[in-house]
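Sequence in, structure out. Go.
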Amino acid sequence: MFIQTEQTPNPATLKFLPGREVLAEGTANFTSAEDAARSPLAERLFAVEGVVGVFFGTDFVSVTKEDSREWYLLKPAILGVVMEHFTAGRPVMLEDAASGDEGHSESGEDSEVVSQIKELLDTRVRPAVAQDGGDIVFRGFDKGVVYLHMQGACQGCPSSTATLKMGIENMLRHYIPEVVEVRPVL
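Output:
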């Protein structure tokens, strides 16, 4: 098994591509070892000293390290965990675990504006952000303000503010006049 790695815009996060499906649908974000209980792979990755975040996409695993750690020391251990996990055929998520984040936290009937926002995020933003090892999740729309949550490599990325303001906000304002601002939520 050959696992590719890619740098992300976030220097604290590396993207690992095992060459096979990681999650069939949605994403899964783990910000602590306690969060990882629903994923055997995430639990094992958090056991590597210095790992502080794990994110799963459809075909990649993003791992975030402590700032004080160096990738050249962590990368071999992480590669070993990922390779051993997939070659042993272990599940990424436990069967009874809730499904991953589908990209939007609001449920129920959406207004036309919210539907348009979600459609643009799903078709234009999320695929591009996934290439960088992360995801952006819609959290709400209130009085012209779109609230988004950054995950994976995007969380804590130095360029995430610019991405939100210059990229996503400008695009949403262009297509949806009701949108006046985009704000991150934690």
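Check: The mean pLDDT is 89. The first strand starts at residue 4 and ends at 7.
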